[in-house]
Q: What sequence folds into this?
């Protein structure tokens, strides 16, 4: 018997009742509203001036808008896309009941903390971009923080034996970030947006095939007894269809519903987390939790082929890398869409090689570093002149060895854990949200605080041994998360993002380039094979399960690239919009499954 569908129906009904529509006719449908072309530019936080724009004249090219094909979900009342069916269903129902895109995104993120514990738990953090109908674009940083008692030596000592456990856990940021997003940009009370997640935790949900498979992959690495009891039975991982109940997590969600962020960062929940930390060798205290605050930042903005592309600023090194890839490609005319596949791939790989070389030069917590030094460096990386005259110049026929591509500054390299999740939302008013959240590694620190049902992140491992990303008290670690919004003539035309650790900027760049330069549809760009190059190691990685044609790989090798297979690259759950009709199109990446859906799946007769 499949209990996942009935659970879905109960949650949908609960959302409708809680948002004031139980037993009533649906609200009058309103089509997606396209902002006027003279919409205001992105707002600036007084403490953080916007990046310096280049005085160079941008290349004038015909504007090509992203588009969707026949397989994308479509609607004029809004759209959501995520890798979890239940989360997408809840987000859709919030939109259908009159909530806005931020309301839907917040509700979806709380659901993911219940249904997607591999990456979406309350013990993690994330980045969010939101574009208002006015045209203002804001970025919220709720990345995790280092505890006040941390030092580089103490972190190295505590994590020497393992990258997991309480010693690897930072101060969580997700709950504070979601609460601030709702307060600043939402329209519904937080309790209503938490209700579906709380119900799913209390009543249970049926483990999906994907979640069961992932749990099986990592089961042997989960040593924490409370987490094994939650996710297993008779010392074996839960199977597809098993009913997963999380009563302790439901109580924590209830505290958040009643007290907002204080229900998590102060009081019994915070005390339980601190006690578990002390028992398990962690460093996070009640004082650390009570001091945590999310930050509103000025997004990075670059122009690509006439499109305004907004992405996350530091501590995201992902946004820096994405901006660098697009800026590098912008220094030369686009290849014709029918140019050989290897020519397109070579251009993208070479742009990524250069952008990834520089991303760590500025991709760190700006509050914990010398802004007088970092801000000019970031402005330089966003200046088209820097990319136009960078040496060695792009060679259209041959690979440039990474040893010849010198970073802007000398920062240590390293690999980032890929277990993250991304969701995209637009509403009928034209508001758009791109949200990426993470536990760092799969199941984070792989420990569960049993009294509160919270799985903790292991993001302390994302700090570097030296340089601007070295650990310090209260500091936020660098991240590759790159939530992105694309705007044309004052209207949002794409909401992009992906999980995947270091591969995220390459994935987002490939999606945009494929749609804009090659004329691919949204679903075609998402389903296409992906390539990854991050400067070091000096090799091109392709997806083993979804490889490009052998002819393309051989052509890249002839150009001098080392090419090797690797795991899947992300799971992009994205949306494009047609400003001329006000129609939104969503697609969920088939690499991990999921659902793109809109309110018209509930109101099929809406105009």
A:
């Amino acid at each position: 018997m499949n209990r996942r569908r009935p659970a879905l129906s109960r949650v949908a009904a609960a959302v409708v009742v809680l948002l004031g529509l139980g037993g009533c006719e649906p609200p009058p449908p309103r089509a997606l509203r396209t902002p006027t072309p003279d919409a205001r530019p992105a707002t600036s936080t007084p403490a953080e001036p916007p990046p310096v724009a280049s005085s160079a004249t941008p290349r004038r090219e015909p504007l090509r808008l992203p588009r969707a094909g026949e397989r994308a979900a479509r609607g004029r009342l809004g759209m959501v896309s995520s890798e979890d069916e239940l989360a997408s269903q809840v987000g859709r129902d919030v939109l259908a009941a009159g909530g806005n895109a931020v309301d839907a995104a917040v509700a979806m993120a709380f659901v993911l903390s219940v249904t997607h514990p591999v990456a979406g738990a309350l013990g993690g953090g994330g980045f969010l971009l939101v574009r208002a109908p006015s045209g203002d674009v804001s970025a919220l940083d709720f990345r995790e923080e280092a505890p006040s008692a941390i030092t580089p030596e103490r972190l190295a000592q505590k994590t020497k034996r393992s990258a997991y456990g309480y010693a690897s856990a930072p101060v969580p940021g997700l709950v504070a970030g979601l609460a601030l997003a709702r307060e600043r940009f939402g329209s519904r009370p937080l309790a209503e947006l938490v209700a579906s997640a709380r119900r799913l935790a209390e009543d249970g949900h049926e483990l999906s095939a994907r979640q069961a498979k992932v749990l099986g992959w990592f089961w042997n690495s989960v040593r924490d007894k409370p987490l094994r009891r939650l996710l297993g039975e008779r010392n074996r991982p839960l199977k597809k269809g098993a009913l997963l109940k999380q009563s302790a997590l439901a109580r924590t969600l209830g505290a958040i519903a009643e007290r907002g962020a204080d229900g998590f960062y102060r009081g019994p929940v915070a005390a339980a987390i601190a006690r578990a930390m002390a028992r398990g060798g962690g460093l996070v205290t009640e004082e650390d939790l009570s001091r945590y605050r999310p930050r509103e930042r000025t997004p990075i903005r670059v122009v690509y082929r006439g499109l305004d592309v907004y992405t996350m600023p530091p501590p995201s090194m992902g946004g820096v890398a994405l901006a660098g890839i697009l800026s590098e490609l912008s220094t030369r005319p686009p290849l014709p869409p029918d140019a050989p596949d290897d020519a397109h791939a070579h251009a993208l790989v070479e742009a990524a090689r250069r952008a990834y070389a520089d991303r760590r030069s500025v991709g760190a917590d700006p509050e914990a570093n010398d802004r007088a030094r970092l801000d000019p460096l970031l402005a330089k990386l966003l200046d088209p002149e820097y990319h136009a005259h960078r040496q060695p110049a792009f060679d259209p026929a041959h690979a440039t060895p990474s040893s010849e591509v010198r970073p802007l500054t000398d920062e240590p390299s390293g690999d980032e854990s890929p277990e993250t999740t991304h969701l995209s939302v637009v509403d009928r008013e034209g508001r758009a949200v791109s949200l990426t959240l993470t536990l760092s590694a799969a199941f984070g620190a792989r420990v569960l605080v049993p009294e509160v049902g919270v799985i903790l992140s292991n993001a302390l491992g994302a700090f570097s041994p030296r340089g601007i990303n070295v650990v310090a008290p209260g500091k936020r670690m660098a991240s590759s998360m790159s939530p992105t919004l694309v705007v044309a003539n004052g209207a949002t035309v794409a909401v992009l993002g992906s999980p995947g650790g270091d591969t995220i900027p390459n994935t987002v760049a490939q999606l945009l380039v494929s749609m804009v330069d090659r004329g691919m549809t949204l679903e075609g760009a998402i389903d296409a094979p992906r390539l990854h190059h991050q400067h070091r190691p000096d090799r091109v990685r392709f997806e083993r399960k979804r490889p490009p044609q052998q002819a393309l790989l051989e052509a890249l090798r002839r150009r001098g690239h080392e090419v090797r297979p690797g795991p899947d690259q992300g799971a992009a759950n994205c949306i494009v919009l047609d400003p001329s009709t006000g129609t939104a199109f969503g697609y969920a990446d088939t690499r991990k499954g999921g659902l793109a859906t809109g309110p018209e799946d509930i109101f099929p007769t809406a105009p």
Summary: Residues 341-362 form the longest helix (22 residues). The chain is about 35% helix and 15% strand. The longest strand covers residues 420-427.
